[in-house]
Amino acid sequence: MQYFRELFLNVRMRDVIDILIVAAVFYKLFKLIRETRAEQLTKGILALFVFAKISGWLEFYTINWILEKTMTVGVIAILIVFQPELRRGLEYIGRSRFFTKTFLEIKGESLTKVVDEIVEAVASLSRQKIGALIVIERQTGLNEVVETGTKIDGRVSSDLLINIFIPNTPLHDGAVIIKEDIIKAAACFLPLTDNMGISKELGTRHRAALGISERSDSLAIIVSEETGAISIAENGSIARYIDAKTLKQILVDMYKPKDQKQTFITKWRRKDEQGEE
């Protein structure tokens, strides 16, 4: 008891700040790896560490030697296995306002026109049950994705977007990448999500939208060719059955140069839950 009393009396303010900073960092890291492969891998690494300590205490020298060597080599393996999560973490730091400005500066009539054109195109594709996948680039660059498709570099317009996704045309199969008010490319290939817990009803477009949202801060809009339903994907989450009015509000909020404390999907789900109540 005396030990803890002396320890408490010797704690300085800088020690408290130090502990809070470390706690905040670990909390952010936990949020980044939560519900990803990295979460399960982290549990496996912690289990190996515990077994190595236990084998040392019990003097199981052979097992302890194998586990210690595995942990030593595991440092390099961690860098390889956790490469997607490390990239997401570094991009998260790079997207902070300390390093960057607001990702878009479209204002006034230009903002309204871009949003209206996208919503009009998506609504039309939804009515006709034409499958579509539109990815809107934000702070994380998508040049490596743009290079997999056909460059367009044209102003956003509903007619152009609709024509791109018309079935049996050269550019209909793949994703359209939009940066600010420019359609950068069409027929782009996107990485599929590794999340095995998503609904079996979701097809390749939805899985691709989730995949790109897991690897960047982009917003993906999906139109199902089976039902015509509109969905959006962001930060590895998906919201389905979005109507045109809600989609327009989401895009207006996204293009506005202001801080956003909640993701679009979080706000949409909250409103939907309130409506059910």
Give the % helix. Answer: 40-55%
Could you report the average pLDDT, rounded to the nearest whole number? Answer: 79
Largest sheet: 7 strands, mixed
| Secondary structure tally, helices | 11
Strand residues, percent: 5-15%
Counting helices, strands and paired strands, the structural category is alpha+beta
The order of strands across the largest sheet is 2-4-3-1-5-6-7
How many β-strand runs? Answer: 7
Q: Which stretches of 5+ consecutive residues score pLDDT under 50?
A: 97-105, 273-277
Global Rg: 24 Å
Oligomer designation: single chain
- Mass-distribution shape: elongated
What's the helix-strand series?
HHHHHHEHEHEEHEEEHH
Distance between the termini: 52 Å
What does this entry look like structurally?
- The chain has 277 residues and is of the alpha+beta class.
- 24% of the residues are buried.
Spell out the blueprint of helices and strands:
Layout: H1 2-9, H2 13-33, H3 37-57, H4 61-81, H5 83-94, H6 108-127, E1 132-137, H7 143-146, E2 150-155, H8 158-165, E3 175-179, E4 182-188, H9 204-215, E5 219-223, E6 230-234, E7 237-239, H10 244-255, H11 264-276
Parallel strand pairs: 1-3
Antiparallel strand pairs: 1-5, 2-4, 3-4, 5-6, 6-7
Helix pairs in contact: 3-4, 6-8, 6-10
